[in-house]
Amino acid sequence: MKTQFPLKREGYDLNTALSYMEGKEEVSTQSMFRALVEKSTDIILITGRDFVIKYITGSVERLLGVKPEVALGRDLFEFVEINKANSLRSFVEEGAMREDKFSEVGLYNIAGEKRFFDVTISNLLDNHKVNGLVINLHDITERKLTEQKLLKANNELDHFIYKTSHDLRAPLLSAIGL
């Protein structure tokens, strides 16, 4: 059976919602979009061709402890480990040549804790309103930590099975004379 949603509920109907969305309640698309982006759990930033940060969302402070105004005007790669900067630079430069590019990166927050992010790069350098690379960092730290715990548990289980198998096999082989 299909679930049906009423068009009218507790004094609100579809026309009220539509007029709200159309701006009749003095809400512009731009301010609504800004509120959605600023409250996002993702870090969204825009860099120029030179990889200098032109825009960054407030979520950078929640996730990495860095105030957005501190990051503005700085090179993107200042926030990356030196040994990872070159590979990330190549990745970002490749992303600048294509429409969209995906990868993972680990960044340290201000407390020195490593956080993991899925990275999506969209090339909007030719869009006159954006004129930059839009980089979206989606926090996957919990998933990566769980993955690491599972890998460790799996390795421990493999070691236990190997040792148990060896401990059981040796006496049996000895008993049958092999």
Characterise the protein shown here.
With 178 residues, this protein is of the alpha+beta class. The chain is built from six helices and seven strands. The protein has helices at residues 14-21, 29-38, 59-64, 68-71, 82-97, 141-175; strands spanning 8-9, 12-13, 43-47, 53-56, 100-108, 114-124, 132-139. It has a five-stranded antiparallel β-sheet, with helices on both faces. A two-stranded antiparallel ribbon has the order 1-2. Strand 3 (43-47) and strand 4 (53-56) form a beta hairpin. The longest helix has 35 residues, at 141-175. It is elongated and about 85 Å long.
Give the assembly state of these chains: single chain
What order do the SSEs take from the amino end to the carboxyl end, as H and E?
EEHHEEHHHEEEH
Proportion of residues in extended strands: 15-25%
Write down the overall mean pLDDT. 77
- Rg from alpha-carbon coordinates: 26 Å
Q: Which ranges are low-confidence, i.e. pLDDT below 50, for 5 or more consecutive residues?
A: 1-12
The percent of residues in helical segments reads 40-55%
Question: Separation of termini?
Answer: 66 Å
